[in-house]
Amino acid sequence: MSSIFNRLRRGGLALLALLLVLPALAAGAPVLPAVAKARLPHDPSAFTQGLFYRDGVFYESTGLYGRSSLRRVDPATGRVLAGRELPRELFGEGLAQVGDVLYQLTWREGRVLLADPADLSPRGELPLPTEGWGACALDGKLVVSDGSDKLFFYDPKTMAALGSVAVTDDGRPVPRLNELEIVAGRIWANVWGDNRIAVIDPATGRVAAWVDCSGLRPGTVAVDFENVLNGIAHDPATGRVWVTGKRWPEIYEIVVPGLPTGGAPLSGLGGGAKP
């Protein structure tokens, strides 16, 4: 009986995985493979929800109730240089810095936690009207994803809504938008359950390209719906890009042939003016 149950369970998981990736398979934007240039150590217990690079270090938000944290991490060694645990009732999510303030989202608690990037000390909080998934900073605004196909733009001082954009690929909605990062003027977005990163024109919401990271998953990480690709960091000074996943033991510096990651905007990969 147990073997029959296990087979049914595996079949159900396979069907769910297929349903998750079918919309992306029908997408029209070009798919570009990510190539690992270097590997950096990463805490394999870190349930990575947010990641960015600033002033030579990684800032990381980790999730799960009772285990969520805010961290500053040495890229070369993976050592946590400073860390602060979140209250047990909070689930840490996306992370961004606007000005001299860190903004850490919470999942379903309706709170944005503010912190000092120097020592991670609390600096108050603001309300969040949606679920919190991913975050990044763009032109002084806080950009937030909530697991839908939309990106929301907020005034970081008050969290007043400034607008939103629906993300599409060849006219099709792209749901489950997760962790966000700005790379060369575009928003790179993890998509929950997908091994690819959407490269999005923030003005139109159109996907200009997909970065395929399927070849990066460490063999030591179990294949399930938790230990997924999630976490993007970028150094605009050098154009370097790093990606990781939840409970992954490594952070990968990647290059994407044909896709600029420096200061210049994308060209020849779709997007364009808002219709």
TrEMBL record:
GO terms for molecular function: glutaminyl-peptide cyclotransferase activity. It holds the Pfam family Glu_cyclase_2. Keywords: Signal, Transferase. The keyword Transferase applies. Residues 1-26 form the signal peptide. SUPFAM superfamilies: YVTN repeat-like/Quinoprotein amine dehydrogenase. Gene3D superfamilies: YVTN repeat-like/Quinoprotein amine dehydrogenase. The keyword Transferase applies. This is Glutamine cyclotransferase.
